[in-house]
Amino acid sequence: MKNSLKLMSLALLAVALHGASAQAIPLATSDAINFDGDIALSCSFSAESDGSLAASIDNLTLSSALSGGTSGAVSVLSNGAVDVTFAAASFSNSPAAYTGGAETQLNVGSGFATGNQVLNLGAGTTTIDLDARATSSTIFPEGSYTLTTTATCAAPQITASSENGRSVRNDQ
Questions:
Q1: pLDDT tens digits for 25-76?
Q2: Which residues does 100 contact at the CB level (< 8 Å), separation at least 6?
Q3: What pTM, to 2 d.p., does this model score?
Q4: 3-state secondary structure of 126
Q5: Is there a domain that residue 89 lies in?
Q6: What is the CA radius of gyration of the chain?
Q7: Residue 107 lies in a domain
Q8: Which of 29, 84, 136, 148 is most buried (CB neighbours < 10 A)?
């Protein structure tokens, strides 16, 4: 009887183990592991080169586009569409004898204009050549002059026209 009790216990244990293994968790499972990230619109300026002004023969115009002057340049790197705004040119340096009154203009590829100049650019690197000019009804006195503009990047706005593959807007 002892032996039959042992055999019965072993049989019950074998059935229990066999039933438990039939309901065990499968050996092969899978689950997705995601790596998420957001990239914000970015824009940076590099390779800036200052221009130089030359005076007209009558000393009524200072311009980087005149003989003896040089254009300025800036490279823009962006990872999406951006508006690059060049602020209206203004004198950041002039001799004490200069009394003001000159009209200042910029040319960023569409001709000289007053006010802010806006270029709509796509993703990538774009080099922009620009010129500055000041015209006066009176002679510019002797001395050192500096016309300055500031470039800024922003998300695009509605464009007004297109020229040479770039949209150009004059914000006055």
A1: 668 889 999 999 999 999 999 989 999 999 999 999 999 999 999 999 999 9
A2: 91
A3: 0.72
A4: strand
A5: yes
A6: 36
A7: yes
A8: 84
Q: What is the sign, positive or negative, of the torsion defined by CA atoms of 70, 147, 111, 76?
A: positive
CATH of the domain at 53: 2.60.40
Rounded CA-CA distance 84/80 in Å is 12
Please give the structure tokens belonging to residue 156: 């695009």
Calpha distance 139→69 (Å, rounded)? 18
| Rounded Cα–Cα distance for residues 122 and 111 (Å) | 21
Q: What range does the domain containing 134 cover?
A: 48-159+166-171
What is the number of domains present in the chain?
A: 1
Residues 126 and 167: beta-carbon distance below 8 Å: no
Q: Tokens 């005149």 identify what position?
A: 66
78 falls within a domain: yes
Residue from 110, 102, 87, 96 nearest 162 by CA: 110
Residue 97 lies in a domain: yes
Q: Which residue has the tokens 């968790």?
A: 25
Task: Give the C-alpha separation, 19 to 39, whole Å.
Answer: 53
